[in-house]
């Protein structure tokens, strides 16, 4: 398969080297396009007012891999690869392996997930992979599972973005694989006030996880679902946060459509209707 791999930790990060080299040794055609430095927590930002530069990297990676270091964000890297650097569309876009978890609402800030989301926006099946630890550095179990999962993506009915989190434990102690929904991670955002050498004030953000919990998704499900169906979702699919704690690899399907479908009708009934907007826009 033809694979495009990116990340937000940078071109020389251990996670992406492990993933790319493992896939290349299994016979896949691998191209790496990722930031030239760490770009964590950049979300889905793209560069519009500055040029984007890309330089080929000839060391570090397996000899069959073409690798590019890009001056832009993770989303920039995937856009540039798909539109300019690759001669044809890849079969799959992979992002990671990130050093640190991307669980619950982390996906809104994550450069790792955003790089994979850019692939999905172009209709390419995508994976975001994260090792759920900043201290543990054995990326091989995640890379090995990616090798198993990648061929299956072509068998899906439609392109998906799968967000994977791998527990920081030995391969033999991983409990299995769980299809999950997003949980909730709450942070205490601590801004430390500092003074630079010129006497000017600046602030350093250091978020700390203070709470992880199951998320109540009943308010996000379509109105067409019955209460029984809503409860079925809640009971059949645990959260990524909970499954990861239990030692499972978590696989959460994500989509770029953030519409709160269950709120559409209620919002329509409560909005004021000035005369100039009184006409129903429904065709």
Descriptors:
283 residues, alpha/beta, nine-stranded mixed β-sheet
CATH class of the domain at 2-179: Alpha Beta
Q: Order the strands across the largest sheet as they lie in space.
A: 3-4-2-1-5-6-7-11-8
Rounded mean pLDDT is 88
Radius of gyration: 21 Å
- Work out the strand percent: 25-35%
Shape: globular
Low-confidence stretches: none
Count of helical stretches: 7
- N-to-C SSE string, H for helix and E for strand: EHEEEHEHEHEEEEHHEH
Structural class: alpha/beta
The appropriate CATH architecture of the domain at 2-179 is 3-Layer(aba) Sandwich
Helix-residue proportion: 25-40%
CATH topology of the domain at 2-179: Stationary-phase Survival Protein Sure Homolog, Chain: A
Largest sheet: 9 strands, mixed
Q: Cα distance, first to last residue? A: 44 Å
Number of strand segments: 11
Give the SSE layout.
Blueprint: E1 2-6, H1 14-25, E2 29-35, E3 54-57, E4 66-70, H2 74-85, E5 92-99, H3 111-121, E6 126-131, H4 140-153, E7 161-166, E8 176-179, E9 184-195, E10 201-213, H5 227-236, H6 240-245, E11 248-254, H7 264-270
Parallel strand pairs: 1-2, 1-5, 2-4, 5-6, 6-7, 8-11
Antiparallel strand pairs: 3-4, 7-11, 9-10
């Amino acid at each position: 398969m033809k694979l495009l791999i990116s990340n937000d930790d940078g071109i020389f990060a251990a996670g992406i080297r492990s993933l790319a080299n493992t896939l290349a040794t299994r016979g896949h055609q691998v191209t790496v396009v990722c930031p030239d430095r760490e770009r964590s927590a950049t979300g889905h930002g793209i560069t519009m007012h500055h040029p984007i530069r890309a330089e080929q990297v000839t060391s570090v990676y397996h000899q069959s891999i073409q690798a590019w270091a890009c001056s832009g964000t993770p989303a920039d890297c995937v856009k540039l690869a798909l539109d300019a650097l690759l001669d044809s569309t890849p079969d799959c876009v992979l992002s990671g392996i990130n050093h640190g978890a991307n669980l619950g609402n982390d996906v809104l800030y994550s450069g790792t997930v955003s790089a994979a989301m850019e692939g999905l926006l172009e209709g390419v099946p995508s994976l975001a992979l994260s090792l759920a630890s900043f201290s543990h550095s054995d990326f091989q179990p995640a890379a090995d599972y990616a090798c198993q999962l990648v061929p299956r993506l072509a068998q899906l009915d439609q392109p998906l973005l799968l967000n994977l989190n791998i527990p920081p434990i030995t391969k033999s102690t991983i409990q299995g694989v769980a299809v999950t929904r997003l949980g909730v991670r709450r942070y205490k955002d601590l801004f430390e006030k500092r003074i630079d050498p010129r006497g000017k004030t600046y602030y350093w953000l250091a978020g700390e996880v203070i709470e992880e919990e199951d998320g109540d998704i009943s308010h996000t499900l379509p109105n067409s679902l019955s209460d029984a169906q809503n409860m079925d979702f809640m009971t059949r699919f645990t959260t990524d946060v909970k499954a990861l704690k239990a030692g499972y690899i978590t696989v959460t399907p994500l989509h770029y459509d953030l519409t709160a479908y269950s709120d559409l009708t209620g919002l329509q009934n409560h909005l004021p209707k000035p005369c100039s907007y009184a006409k129903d826009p429904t065709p």
